[in-house]
Design brief:
The structure holds 2 protein chains of 2 kinds.
Chain A (H helix, E strand, L loop, with lengths): L1 E18 L4 E18 L3 E5 L6 H9 L6 E6 L9 H4 L2 E5 L11 H11 L4 H15 L14 H13 L5 E5 L7 H18 L2 E5 L3 H7 L2 E6 L2 E7 H8 L2 E7 L3 H9 L4 E4 L2 E7 L3 H11 L5 E5 L2 H13 L1
Parallel strand pairs in A: 3-7, 3-8, 5-6, 6-7
Antiparallel strand pairs in A: 1-2, 1-4, 8-9, 10-12, 10-13, 11-12
Helix pairs in contact in A: 4-5
Chain B lengths: L1 H12 L2 H26 L10 H36 L2 H5 L5 H6 L11 H14 L6 H26 L14 H6 L11 H8 L5 H13 L3 H28 L6
Helix pairs in contact in B: 3-6, 3-7, 3-10, 7-10, 7-11
Classes of the chains: A alpha/beta, B mainly alpha.
């Protein structure tokens, strides 16, 4: 059952400037979103992809009720987000990787306690959720520290904790792993997976890190210039735009490079790495030949990276 | 509330010099105002029917209202024009299941500013004693009742003045408007020409904040004053809330 229904959402930002030469006000409209429709079921974890300025964050802000759309309708959990009903706001959360919602000068625990009151979280649930977050994110000893004394990764973990204390049914995540080291980013991904699986929390995630999307999202929505370009399974996207596999060979000697140059396949050579792109049907033939010619420890076979798939999609839609 | 006060204490404690500056400024301001009043009253017996000591009390009471505002909501309300709208930090406030206007307003209390009330209370007390102003106990109750409405009116006006920041994002100077208009509270309404007086009793009822409660304290309650204070507070509350909601609709947030 869809718990997020967006129909033909458009949003344009109006800007007025005074033209002193002509003594008139000039109005300029910037289109951020154009006719975006989407349905999301309960418990889905959907990834939003798109370049900077594509409209991803604007869409999340419209769904959460922060921004009003220029046209279109949205229903989340049966509510119109812009009515800002308290019953609605108690069931959602927004995490923004580049903005803090917690107090800078206070220990994180004090901000959590304030949010407990704001969201009317019972003492038992507050304790349970806080302990779960602290355990999952490895935050022992962190929550007692002031925010300004924390690293970026620690702050982000606290931001996530703050957003999950009230058990939201829908959570909007805008680049939650931005700027995090690999360990922190992995901890955040694990947490999102756990909460999505155990609590059936519906999540919409935007991220520039394809690792986040690949690990967490079965379904992706691609947006560019405010328009929806793709909505479907990530695996189908890869199949459609990058059906081939990549066979990479690490070439340590001149002899190896010469051998690689003689292979009867379409290939490229960069530094000490040779790459062969091959359709899945022909993969067996290519692999057999490559393993005949080179040491197995120097060979790797992989899918095309998601970044490349995305680039292909955008290029195909542009041309 | 405790968390808010704790936050205020931690923040203010870091800038002890600020509070000393505020005290010094307040002493200077009071001194200049007293000298100014002395000069005026060395030439006249009364101003719009008010004696020197009555006006001194009015001045002190208006300062108490302003100090209460500084303690409770001034920093929070100002943050709307200073940074919340411009930087998009308003986003998080809009997502809370509580009244956004109140949450922002009272999110940054400045506990130490309440100490400034001591000066104002002392001047008010001095004015009553030195001026031999006899006050009925009944009037004190009415005064306190209407003073409460006065503080609420002052709060709504402070919010109302800042709301253009929703539409004109870089409107930092708007926070000073209330400082200037607040000065009108320290004089009797009768010194203003009729049309201007009407504006400041109806369209922007800053005069109602201190003039009506103090008048009732000195000369007793009138039904029309009580009705006026209740009605104007309600209307102002509704108008402020409506404009705030319009502002929220126009809010464009900021890029991530």
């Amino acid at each position: 059952m869809s718990i997020i229904k967006a129909k033909k959402i458009s949003k344009s930002f109006k800007k007025s400037t005074l033209d002193w030469k002509r003594l008139c006000v000039e109005r300029k409209d910037t289109v951020a979103l154009e006719d975006i429709s989407i349905d999301i079921d309960e418990g889905e974890l959907v990834g939003f992809l798109g370049p900077n300025g594509a409209g991803k964050t604007t869409f999340l802000k419209i769904l959460s009720g922060i921004l009003y759309p220029t046209s279109g309708s949205v229903e989340v959990l049966g509510f119109n987000p812009w009515d800002k009903k308290y019953d609605y706001l108690r069931q959602i959360a927004l995490v923004m990787g580049q903005k803090n919602q917690l107090w800078w000068d206070l220990p994180a625990i004090d901000s959590f306690k304030l949010l407990k009151e704001v969201y009317s979280v019972s003492g038992r649930n507050f304790k349970k959720n806080l302990e779960m977050m602290v355990d999952t994110l490895g935050m022992q000893g962190i929550v007692q520290r002031r925010l300004r004394n924390m690293s970026l990764g620690e702050r982000m973990k606290c931001e996530l904790t703050a957003s999950f204390l009230h058990d939201p049914k829908v959570i909007f995540l805008d680049e939650p792993t931005i700027g995090l080291d690999v360990f922190s980013a992995q901890a955040v991904r694990n947490l999102l997976q756990t909460i999505n699986r155990e609590k059936k929390t519906t999540m919409i995630l935007t991220s520039h890190y394809m690792g986040d999307i690949e690990e967490l999202c079965k379904r992706v929505v691609m947006i560019n210039h405010g328009k929806k370009m793709y909505d479907g399974e990530l695996s189908a996207l890869k199949k459609q735009y990058a059906p081939e596999r990549k066979v990479e060979v690490f070439l340590h000697s001149v002899k190896d490079r010469e051998k690689f140059a003689k292979l009867p396949f379409e290939k490229s050579l960069e530094d000490a790495k040779g790459t062969i792109r091959v359709e899945k049907e022909r993969l067996a033939v290519v692999v057999e030949k490559v393993f005949e010619s080179f040491e197995p420890e120097n060979i790797s076979i992989s899918d095309i990276e998601l970044e490349e798939v995305i680039t292909k999609v955008f290029e195909s839609q542009t041309h | 509330m405790w968390v808010l006060i704790k936050n205020s204490w931690i923040r203010d404690a870091k800038i002890g010099g600020y509070q000393i500056g505020v005290f010094a400024y307040r002493v200077l301001e009071i001194t200049v105002t007293l000298v100014f009043f002395q000069i005026i009253f060395s030439n006249i017996e009364s101003l719009a029917g008010w004696t020197y000591y009555e006006i001194l009390f009015l001045y002190a009471f208006s300062k108490i209202v302003i100090d209460l505002g500084s303690t409770l909501f001034k920093v929070g309300v100002r943050s709307i024009s200073e940074n919340l709208v411009r930087t998009g930090e308003l986003d998080f406030f809009l997502l809370r299941p509580v009244n956004t206007m109140f949450l922002i307003s009272f999110s940054k209390p400045r506990v130490l500013d309440s100490i400034n009330c001591i000066f104002s209370v002392a001047i008010g007390y001095y004015a009553l004693i030195a001026g031999n102003i006899a006050i009925k106990s009944e009037n004190i109750i009415w005064f306190l009742f209407l003073a409460l409405f006065g503080v609420v009116i002052y709060y709504f006006l402070s919010v109302l003045v800042i709301t253009p920041a929703f539409w004109v994002v870089k409107l930092w100077s708007i926070k000073y408007v209330m400082n200037r208009l607040g000065q009108l509270m320290q004089y009797p309404a009768g010194i203003l020409p009729g049309a201007i007086r009407m504006i400041f009793f109806t369209a922007f009822p800053i005069l109602a904040v201190s003039y009506i409660p103090v008048r009732v304290l000195f000369w007793g309650p009138k039904l029309e004053y009580v009705v006026y204070m209740i009605v104007i507070t309600l209307i102002l509350g509704i108008v402020t809330r409506a404009i705030w909601k319009l502002g929220e609709r126009s809010y464009a947030s900021a890029s991530s």
